């Protein structure tokens, strides 16, 4: 999934259309991976929670990136590729750490609220009049405001939900277009400055070590399996609340453009099988991303569902 093998060592005399498309798609894929985790980090921050995303999904994904990094070092890939693999592992750790922080913090708050509720249950009957105020600071106000929002939503649920959906799609479309422009512009600059030039086919002496290939397949299996816990979680809870749709859109775009970059570079048998583990890891996850899109469409993001239920 993140196995972006950027070739920068060659001296081709001219640039063909296939080489240009391969470079552009590879650069867009790279831009997608760089910005991939930002939407989910922002979503978790806005929600003050990470309950929507499966921690198992992130951990298996992180294992895939670790094996990808080790494989890149073992295969002796260019420093740029190794640096990117390190960046991906670092970004994974940031998101995992954020999720653990919110899960632990919210669990502690829930235990405190439960303890206060139990204490109030032991009070005399006359002392229970204020029991509605027991809980987290501002929780009663949030419950009241939530009820009022549901009442207001019941009057115009479809209008408000449709407006939110339209705004979300506009924001996501602009974000996707921006990432694509950044990726294409980055490739154009790299080509013009000589940082990126078409690669030539390596001879047999440059064959990838068998250990690195095995790690490539391990990372591909991890990438394929990582989304399964998230899909199961969404189906079990019948909700995608807390998930960033843009996160999965960027993932799909990164996988699709990466696979296209490889295939546009060459369709020769030896080259295809050399890159097969990365193709499996990238293109195979597209099916799982589409499954999550269907879940978004079916279950909504929580807010839309509550508005519909209120009606």
From TrEMBL:
Residues 139-153 have a biased composition (Basic residues). The lineage of its organism: Eukaryota, Fungi, Dikarya, Ascomycota, Pezizomycotina. It is a multi-pass membrane protein. InterPro entries: LAAT-1, PQ-loop_rpt. Keywords: Membrane, Transmembrane, Transmembrane helix. One of its GO terms (biological process) is vacuolar transmembrane transport. Belongs to the laat-1 family. One of its GO terms (molecular function) is basic amino acid transmembrane transporter activity. It catalyses: L-histidine(out) + L-arginine(in) = L-histidine(in) + L-arginine(out). The keyword Transmembrane helix applies. It is found in: Membrane. GO terms for cellular component: lytic vacuole membrane. This is Vacuolar membrane PQ loop repeat protein. The chain crosses the membrane at residues 20-42, 54-75, 81-104, 243-264.
């Amino acid at each position: 999934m993140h196995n972006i093998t950027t070739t920068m060592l060659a001296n081709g005399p001219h640039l063909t259309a296939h080489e240009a498309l391969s470079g552009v798609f590879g650069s867009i894929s790279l831009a997608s991976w760089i910005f991939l985790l930002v939407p989910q980090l922002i979503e978790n921050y806005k929600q003050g929670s990470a309950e929507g995303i499966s921690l198992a999904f992130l951990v298996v994904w992180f294992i895939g990136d670790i094996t990808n990094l080790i494989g890149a070092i073992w295969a002796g890939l260019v420093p740029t590729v190794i640096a990117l693999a390190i960046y991906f592992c670092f970004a994974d750790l940031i998101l995992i750490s954020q999720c653990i922080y919110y899960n632990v913090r919210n669990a502690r708050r829930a235990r405190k609220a439960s303890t206060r509720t139990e204490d109030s249950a032991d009070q005399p009957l006359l002392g229970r009049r204020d029991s509605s105020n027991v809980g987290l600071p501002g929780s009663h106000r949030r419950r009241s405001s939530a009820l009022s929002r549901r009442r207001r939503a019941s009057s115009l649920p479809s209008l408000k939900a449709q407006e939110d959906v339209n705004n979300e799609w506009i924001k996501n479309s602009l974000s996707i277009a921006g990432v694509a422009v950044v990726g294409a512009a980055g490739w154009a600059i790299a080509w013009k400055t000589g940082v990126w030039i078409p690669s030539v086919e390596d001879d047999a002496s440059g064959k990838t070590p068998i250990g690195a290939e095995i790690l490539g397949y391990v990372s591909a299996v991890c990438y394929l399996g990582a989304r399964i816990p998230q899909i199961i979680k969404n189906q079990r809870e019948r909700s995608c609340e807390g998930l960033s749709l843009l996160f999965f859109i960027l993932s799909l775009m990164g996988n699709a453009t990466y696979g296209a970059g490889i295939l546009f570079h060459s369709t020769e048998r030896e080259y295809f099988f050399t890159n097969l583990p990365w193709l499996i890891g990238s293109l195979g996850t597209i099916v799982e991303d589409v499954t999550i899109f269907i879940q978004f469409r079916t279950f909504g993001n929580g807010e839309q569902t509550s508005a519909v239920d209120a009606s």
